[in-house]
Amino acid sequence: MTDGAVVVVGGTRAIGLEIVRHYAGAGRDVVLSGQSPDNVAAAAAEIGGSVRGITFDLSAPQTIEAALADVGPVDRLVLAAIDRDQNAVATYDIERAIRLVTLKLVGYTTVVAKLRSRLATDASVVLFGGMAKERPYPGSTTVTTVNGGIVGLTRTLVEELRPIRVNSIHPGVVGDSPYWSEKPAAIEKYASQSPIGRLVTMAEIVGATVFLLENTGVNGVDLILDGGWHCR
Ligand SMILES: NC(=O)c1ccc[n+]([C@@H]2O[C@H](COP(=O)([O-])OP(=O)(O)OC[C@H]3O[C@@H](n4cnc5c(N)ncnc54)[C@H](OP(=O)(O)O)[C@@H]3O)[C@@H](O)[C@H]2O)c1
Q1: Which of the chain's termini has less CB crowding within 10 Å, N or C?
Q2: pTM value?
């Protein structure tokens, strides 16, 4: 491995921030991103050390290249950002859907395209999808759609970036993530359906992400991390 940076897109909070914390704690140079300058500055200050922040909006892909201009060599790239919409076919919000589809599919791909020449040959990439791709929840219409798209994106990037490894991770409901921890009734309902009797945790998602990034034989894997819920 060269001494390039770990880049975490969507690293200002929750799972992304925990990945930043892991790699910063291991002494790595980390670049985190978000869409809000205040959130980016707060997250970089919270972790400290060799962490720095950059700000760009994945749903405005034409702006991404300039925002990445002073990012140097990259060894590890994590694409974890999301801006969930609440959407259903019956009340379809086209603008919100376009924003999320652009963010998660065109935005993610643009980051990879613009960093491609800075990725070391032994670099690795992890894309975040989620089990909403197979198990929709109310309002997840666009989330379910883009998470399915992450599977296809992983396939094509394995070919296009070779020998760089590309994998995706698909968490189930992550019980201690801020998005869900504010919804205790949903947590109780989903936990009761999980074979392990609880929801997976951010620490478990970080551990699985690090496995995908660091294990040099793992490539083209869509890793489900949901405590076995998908078996039901
Ligand atoms: N939490 C779960 O239960 C769960 C389950 C399945 C899959 N996942 C997936 O895991 C990943 C992380 O989820 P999370 O719940 O930890 O995320 P989160 O708390 O919603 O954080 C989202 C991150 O994305 C950034 N972001 C939002 N809109 C953006 C935009 N337009 N451009 C650039 N960055 C933007 C945010 O930056 P700002 O702070 O600047 O807004 C923040 O850093 C997501 O891809 C999600 O789909 C999560």
Answers
A1: C
A2: 0.98
Hey, what domains does the chain have and what are their CATH numbers? Answer: 5-226 (3.40.50.720)
Residue type present at position 206: V
**Residue found under tokens 């799972």:** 15
Per-residue pLDDT of 105-155, as tens digits, reads: 999 999 999 999 999 999 999 999 999 999 999 999 999 999 999 999 999
In this structure, the chain runs to a length of 232
Which of 7, 15, 30 has most ligand 1 atoms within 8 Å of its beta carbon, as the pocket-test mutant? 15
Considering only CA atoms, which residue is closest to atom 46 of ligand 1? 82
Looking at residue 165, what DSSP letter applies? E
Q: Are strands 30-34 and 5-9 parallel, antiparallel or unpaired?
A: parallel
